[in-house]
Amino acid sequence: ARPALISEPTFTLLDSLRKYRHFLRHAYAVQLHAERIRENAELILRAVEGFTFDWKQFRTWLEGQIEEKE
Questions:
Q1: Angle, alpha carbons 29-21-37 (nearest 5°)
Q2: How many other CB atoms are found less than 10 A from the CB of residue 10?
């Protein structure tokens, strides 16, 4: 069976960022809070790190599948 491209922890981080983006796109008169922006900046860094790790693992699996077919 094919493994997931992104892990559950990475998905959770990305989903949290997606929800925040959705909120900001639809909240026209909302005041931005520096602390929340900092928290999301940290989430972005963790999400990129997580996705990079997940992608490398998936790519390794995919390359193994290709080698098996050759």
A1: 80
A2: 21
**Sign of the C-alpha dihedral computed for residues 63, 15, 41 and 27 taken in this order:** positive
Other beta carbons less than 10 A from residue 47's beta carbon = 21
Tens place of pLDDT per residue across the chain (70 aa): 899 999 999 999 999 999 999 988 888 777 888 998 999 999 999 999 999 999 999 999 999 999 988 8
Q: Closest by alpha carbon to 46, among 23, 16, 24, 19?
A: 16
Question: Tell me, what DSSP letter sits at residue 5?
Answer: S
Which pTM value belongs to this model? 0.81
Phi and psi for 42 in degrees, rounded to 5?
Answer: -65, -40
